[in-house]
Write a structure and sequence with these properties.
With 285 residues, the protein is an alpha/beta fold. Helix content is 52%, strand content 14%. The protein has a single domain (6-197, 225-253), classed as NAD(P)-binding Rossmann-like Domain (Rossmann fold, 3-Layer(aba) Sandwich).
Length: 285
Amino acid sequence: METKGKALVTGASSGIGRETAIKLAKEGFQVIAAARRKERLDELARQNSNIIPRPVDLSDSKAMEDFCKELSNLSEPITVLINNAGFSLRGAIEDVSISAVKNLFEVNLFGLIKITQACLPGMRRLRKGTIVNLSSIVGKFPFPTSGPYSATKHAVEAISDALRMEVRPFGIRVITIRPGVIGSEFNETANRLTGDLLSRTDPDYKTVYQTYGAGMGKLFTNVTVPGPELIADLIVEAVLSDSPKAVYAKGPFVKELLGERLRLDDEGFYEFMMEKTGLKGLVVE
């Protein structure tokens, strides 16, 4: 059977990326599944002959250089690019090292830009293509302790907005996806990379962390956290659409928090979030 074209999904070894790769392959795309964990990718490829495993570490500059050259030289260009790879770590700004922040930007932003730059010439030659960039609801507002991760997603929003205008004349669509809270290994990885903040932070911050943690616990009361299939279905829907929207958002807190960020002014949303996170009125003596 003739394929619908060649797709690339980054971060394809788990979560949203894995489910998206599977669904695009079932739709008839030949999918290059890129991620660090080779064994996970090989298992994916055994499931569907339309999936091509490509182990690559987006934080490794030499590996990225080789991968981007490979993408630029494909005989059949990528026509669907899903920039999904990314990770998070948490902590108050004072508690996060600059080296950790740089690594976060290297994967979440610079890797996305490099891969996009490698795929765009082929899309321009064909005068068609779809680029899907995974942002987040925190691409529009941060939670306390999510400043560096949110900053990468704010940057993804800006890159996406500029790119959407730049490449539309070539028939290339750029779509931003803003997931709410999704159940996947993403959160487990963030917890592992963050470690025990309370054991190493200054005593001044302990009350802040504890109060915020209790506030978030209340925020999640009676919230059902969906799996990555919810967002993978949304991505495939956008890719297959003849006229996709510029931005899609789905999942917990899309209406409750993201909706309020889009409705309120800066001062109003600040007060709203201080209330929601339990930090309003907190004074550390």
